[in-house]
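thought: user wants a sequence for this fold. calling inverse folding tool.
action: design(structure=
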């Protein structure tokens, strides 16, 4: 598969089969993802994958925190914290398309909230990963994390594995630290649910457009 083909095929998937990814395939993908470049070869990423009984335990722990009314407490600033202008417009458009796919209207707050909670159920995926880096690091180091995440997602596509990157999985870090054995001093930047796509799941019909190249690129000659 060419890189261009993997980019065209990759979609954010939120409906999964229960089948786990075989460990030998997963290890092969992780070994290749480790080739991702980073500033001064610092390789700041640490990727923790939670599956099986530990995954069920983590889901229950996260739902307990959410249903108790506990407020989110991400260590790094969430990506939507200061969006303005066209970036906020794109976020609203994304949310509208997502909820509209599920037949949920803008005013139906209860159903919107129920769908939001699926983030912490990992959308039914058999695996959930947490990408962490030292809490002392900042935005420049996060670039390396994004490069690693993109490598991982494209490798998933090559091997027929679907995924959903989720900033929301950084919102309630305490259960994750308790169950997922995150390295001391690290903080969660982003999570990713992954597994094999349930092609019949309605939620997977959501498709997001991309801005024109002219809106995002300037060529100077």
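)
observation: tool returned 221 residues.
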């Amino acid at each position: 598969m060419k890189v261009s083909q993997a980019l065209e095929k990759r979609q954010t998937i939120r409906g999964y089969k229960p089948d786990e990814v075989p460990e030998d395939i997963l290890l092969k993908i992780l070994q290749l993802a480790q080739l991702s470049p980073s500033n001064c070869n610092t390789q700041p990423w640490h990727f923790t994958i939670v599956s099986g009984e530990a995954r069920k335990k983590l889901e229950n722990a996260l739902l307990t925190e959410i249903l108790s009314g506990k407020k989110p407490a991400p260590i790094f600033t969430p990506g939507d914290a200061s969006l303005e202008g066209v970036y906020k417009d794109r976020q609203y458009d994304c949310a509208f398309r997502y909820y509209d796919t599920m037949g949920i209207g803008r005013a139906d707050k209860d159903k919107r909230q129920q769908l939001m909670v699926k983030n912490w159920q990992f959308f039914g995926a058999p695996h959930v990963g947490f990408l962490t880096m030292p809490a002392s690091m900042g935005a420049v180091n996060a670039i390396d994390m994004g490069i690693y995440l993109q490598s991982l997602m494209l490798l998933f596509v090559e091997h027929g594995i679907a995924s959903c990157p989720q900033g929301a999985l950084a919102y309630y870090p305490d259960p994750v630290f308790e169950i997922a054995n995150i390295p001391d001093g690290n903080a969660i930047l982003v999570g990713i649910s992954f597994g094999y796509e349930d092609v019949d799941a309605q939620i997977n019909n959501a498709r997001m457009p991309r801005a024109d190249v002219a809106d995002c690129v300037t060529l100077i000659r």
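thought: summarizing for user.
answer: Here is the designed sequence. Residues 214 and 221 are 15 Å apart (CA to CA).
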